[in-house]
Design brief:
With 61 residues, the protein is mainly alpha-helical. The chain starts with 7 loop residues before the first helix and ends in a 22-residue tail after the last helix. The radius of gyration is 24 Å and the shape is rod-shaped. The relative contact order is 0.06.
């Protein structure tokens, strides 16, 4: 037995779900774009990991 008529609640829920999915896709795209922009800089990307890094030392001539 198939449902012949959709309830108004289902219509509102469907539009809300579409909005949430579009917001999620936009967020993923934003994170991806920021990551690509950081990688295109060409420098070494290092995070703060509480360890000694020789790249932070000043070079003395």
């Amino acid at each position: 037995m198939a449902i012949s008529k959709e309830h108004e609640l289902h219509t509102r829920r469907k539009s809300r779900n579409i909005f949430v999915s579009l917001a999620l896709v936009a967020f993923v795209f934003l994170v991806f774009a920021i990551s690509i922009a950081k990688f295109q800089d060409g420098q070494l990307i290092e995070g703060f990991d509480h360890s000694y890094r020789a790249t932070l030392l000043k070079v003395e001539e």
